[in-house]
Amino acid sequence: MPGRSAEYLNIIPRGETRVIQPELIRAELGDLDMAVGPSPAACEYLGFYGLDLSSRADVHIRQGKRQVGGYEVVLQLWTADEPRATLLVLHGYYDHMGLYRNVVAWGLARGFAVLGCDLPGHGLSSGAPASINEFAEYQVVLQALMAEAERLGLPQPWHLLGQSTGGAILLDHLLRQPAAARLGQSILLAPLVRPRAWARSRLSYQLLRHFVDGIPRQFSDNSGDRAFLEFQRRDPLQAATLPTAWVGALDRWIPQVEAAPACHYRPIIIQGEQDMTVDWRYNLPVLQAKFAQPEILRLADARHHLVNEREDIRREYFAFLDERLA
C-alpha cells in the first residue's frame, strides 16, 4: 500500500524549525518540460515531504511554473516509464502538493502520470496566503493545468482528483463545461459545497469583513492519523490565518454552484461520516441532484482529510477506486 504514515511524514523533532523557501524555488524554475534537475532548495522540499519517492528508481520528477491570472503557479509532474493515463490533482484549502504523496504514489502504482499544482496562495505558488479574489480564479488554474497536460502530450484519459476545495473546483468545472472525450473518471474526496456551520460562519463574515482582513486559523483534528495531525501543525507551508477575502469568495460561489443546471457526468464521491469540516449531510443530496447517479462511497470512520487518513481507511477507498479505474 503506497504512502504509509511512517514513510510519508518526516515528523519534525520538537524544537526544530524547518524552512521551505517558495520564492527561491519559484525563482529557479522554468517550464515544466525543461530538462533541468531540481535545485538544492527544490531537493530539500521534495525530500522533506517525501515527494522524491526515493524507493522508486523509475520515477521521473519535473517541476515548473506558469503565469496564471497574475499568479506564479508551481506545477509538479511525476511519471514512470510508459504511463497509460494521467491523474490531474487539485489539493484542498490550506493544503499544498507537498501533502499529497499518498495520492502520487497511488497514481504511479496505477500506471498514471501524475500532474498537480499548488493553488494561488498555497504551497510554492504566489499569492496572499490562503486567499483568493473569486473562485473563478481557481477555474483559470484548472484550465492552465489541463493546457499543460495537453502541451506535454500526457496520455489520455485524464482522470481528475480533488480533495475538499479541490473537489469544489472540479464539480464547478463539470457543471459548467461541455463533455470532453479526454476526461476519464472524476474523483471528489470530501468535496466542498457548504462548510459545516455555514450559517454561523457567514454571519461572522458579514459582521467582520469591514474591520479585519482575517482571523487566526484554528487547526482541527481532520484526520484519524495522529502522525499527520502533528506534522500538519508544524508544516512550514501552512497558512496561519483565515482571510475574510476567501470567505467572501466562497459566499459568492455557493449560490452560483447551487443554481447551476444538472449535467450528465457521473463522478465518484468519497465522503467520511466523521467529517467536521464540510456539511456533508447537506452536500451529498446537492451533488446527487447535480450529477447523473454519482457513485458514492461513505466511510463510517473517516474524517475530512481523506488524502491523509489512517492507512486502513486509505486502503479501503483506494481499492474502491482501483475497481473503477481498471
Automatic annotation (TrEMBL):
Keyword set includes Amino-acid biosynthesis: no
Keywords carried by this UniProt record: Hydrolase
Molecular function per GO: hydrolase activity
Keyword Nucleotidyltransferase attributed: no
Pfam family of the protein (one): Hydrolase_4
SUPFAM superfamilies, sorted: alpha/beta-Hydrolases (SSF53474)
Domain Serine aminopeptidase S33: 82-311
Top-level taxon of origin: Bacteria
Protein name: Alpha/beta hydrolase
Organism: Stutzerimonas tarimensis
Lineage, opening ranks: Bacteria, Pseudomonadati, Pseudomonadota, Gammaproteobacteria, Pseudomonadales
